[in-house]
Write a structure and sequence with these properties.
423 residues, alpha+beta, Beta-lactamase, 2 domains, seven-stranded antiparallel β-sheet, two-stranded antiparallel sheet, 12 helices, 33% helix, globular
Length: 423
């Protein structure tokens, strides 16, 4: 009996060790994966200088190639108001990096025949059956703009939600009359369920005709509600069952209610908490009803790396298949083409189109930073960012909390990473 107990104890330890190893990619000398140690080290030097200059509190950077960690460093402070150093398991508000996770969960349901890309959203949310489009008209005599409503020429589809061609918008950047209507109606303000939020959006005028224009929007929040209706589960339950639990993403959630995890939440500088028109860094310690599919999750670099490695592997990780390689190829192809207009306020950028949940690189040139065609990416308003490069067999996770620095730092990190690729 004693020997049996000892064997069971040893087996349990072995299983625990295997689980811990599976949670993290194996480390490798950068030169063993075709990268330069010296050049990757420049990333840490640069971030330390930014921390010393009080531009950001700190950051976590992970560079993985060929299924191995070439670089993984936590730098600076986790919270400028506390002495704790930044840690590899620091928890970040990832905002719009929620969108790829929700879209992948949706595509898993598409593969199972539980969701149709071409289906009208009103099949799942009846309030979207009679949406109207807001059109700005100018009074010739006074020059005053007014908003008129016209019928939608076609229904919003599930695919429109995934590629941001639904006609919906965000109200916290830009100054159109539809965006003003969002703000006046308090869209996004209050404590509401996902269902209530979707119905509220359906009562607002669309900014564009469905399918005509790429406009960054609440589309993925509506997609989250579609998943709830199609599955009969809450959005968090769907994400946990399909991605978070099987991938071992134990620190990825909508809210952080446990004291031990709250102590790991990264915070921005006191004067860097806003990302436009009164929209500010939120507090994930306060649980609310709403589970935002467009921007509600928190996560860690390690957690998100599990998701990205699965995507880079063509939909498989640790012997479990999540998506078909063909589905990933479809998702990371451009879905805008030449027929969809883009808005001037918020673009995927030169050289890029947009797929289903990701910005996608169409050409090797045009963009003002180094990555090859086929790369796909997205970032969060709070400062987090990632990209996946199948051609180079590489992905990068960059985690910080700084709305001010989120855009310029993305290019810097990209260029420094590719400067370290030697073969």
């Amino acid at each position: 009996m004693k020997k049996a107990m000892q064997w069971l104890g040893a087996a349990a330890l072995a299983l625990a060790a295997h689980a811990a190893a599976a949670q993290n990619l194996p480390a490798a000398k950068p030169e063993d994966v075709g990268m330069s140690s010296e050049r990757l080290g420049r990333i840490g030097t640069w971030i330390r200088a930014e921390v010393d200059a009080k531009r950001i509190p700190g950051a976590v950077v992970m560079v993985a190639r060929n299924g191995k960690l070439a670089y993984y460093e936590a730098i600076g402070q986790q919270d400028p108001g506390r002495p704790d150093p930044m840690s590899r398991d620091s928890i970040f508000r990832i905002y719009s990096m929620t969108k790829p996770l929700v879209t992948v969960a949706a595509m898993m349901m598409v593969e199972e025949g539980k969701l149709l890309l071409e289906a009208p959203v009103s099949r799942y949310i009846p309030a979207f059956a009679n949406v109207k489009v807001g059109v700005e008209k100018v009074d010739a005599a006074t020059g005053v703009k007014r908003l008129e409503l016209e019928a939608a020429r076609r229904p919003i589809t599930v695919q429109d939600l995934m590629r941001h061609t639904s006609g919906l918008t965000y109200g916290f950047f830009g100054d159109s009359l539809v965006k003003k209507a969002y703000l006046d109606a308090g869209v996004g303000a209050g404590d509401f369920t996902t269902a209530e939020f979707a119905d509220k959006l359906a009562s607002m005028p669309l900014h564009y005709q469905p399918g005509s224009t790429w406009d960054y929007s609440y589309s993925t929040d509506v997609l989250g509600r579609v998943l709830e209706v199609a599955s009969g589960q809450s959005l968090y339950s769907i994400l946990r069952a399909r991605l978070l639990d099987p991938l071992g993403m134990k620190d990825t959630s909508f809210y952080v209610t446990e004291a031990a995890r709250q102590a790991r939440i990264a915070e921005p500088l006191a004067d860097d908490r806003s990302f436009g028109a009164g929209a500010a860094i939120g507090n994930p310690r306060e649980a609310m009803k709403f589970e935002s599919g467009g921007g509600g999750l928190v996560s860690t670099a390690t957690d998100y790396s599990r998701f990205l490695q699965m995507m880079l592997n063509g939909g498989m990780l640790d012997g479990r298949r999540y998506l078909s390689p063909k589905t990933i190829e479809y998702m990371t192809s451009d879905h805008l083409g030449s027929t969809v207009a883009t808005t001037p306020l918020y673009l995927p950028g030169p050289g890029y189109g947009f797929g289903l949940g990701f910005g996608v690189r169409k050409v090797n040139g045009e963009a003002p930073f180094i990555t090859p065609a086929g790369e796909y990416n997205w970032g969060g308003a709070g400062g987090t960012y990632f990209w996946v490069d199948p051609k180079t067999n590489l992905f990068v996770v960059f985690m910080m909390q700084s709305p001010k620095q989120r855009v310029p730092y993305r290019s810097i990190v990209r260029n420094m990473v590719y400067a370290a690729v030697e073969k």
